[in-house]
Design brief:
Elements (H helix, E strand, L loop, with lengths): L3 E4 L18 H12 L6 E4 L6 H4 L5 H9 L2 H4 L5 H6 L12 H18 L2
Parallel strand pairs: 1-2
């Protein structure tokens, strides 16, 4: 029987999409705790994801988008003159700008790339 590849970074649960948003990264932390407490980890190959580099992310996204992710802050997102940039890169109600957005994205992309590489 093949084992499941499970990528987990303990810092992911510290991010917050904001009040009212359905995505709650803290749930990842809670699920990980259950996996450990119930012994499910014994049937998994557990990996810590790396933070994807700009070059790795540019295989799938434009350099302009990656640059935007690196520099945008929650304060900037509240400024009216920044609205056009937010819309251009599809940061609407469902995709909020939050503190630590870029490291979060790097970790999620690193997890996805790691998983894809394990399946090769």
């Amino acid at each position: 029987m093949s084992r499941v590849c499970y990528f987990y970074d303990q810092n992911v649960g510290e991010f917050d999409y904001g009040f009212g948003h359905p995505m709650k990264p803290l749930r990842n932390k809670l699920v990980h705790h259950l996996i450990m407490e119930y012994g499910i980890y014994k049937r998994l190959n557990i990996y810590k994801p790396w933070r994807a580099t700009n070059e790795q992310m540019e295989m799938f996204h434009s350099k302009e988008y990656i640059d935007f992710l690196q520099r945008v802050t929650p304060e900037m997102a509240l400024q009216p003159h920044f609205k056009k940039s937010l819309e251009e890169f599809n940061f609407t109600d469902d995709c909020p700008v939050f503190e630590g957005l870029y490291p979060f994205v790097q970790t999620v992309v690193g997890s996805s790339l790691g998983c894809a590489m394990k399946k090769l």
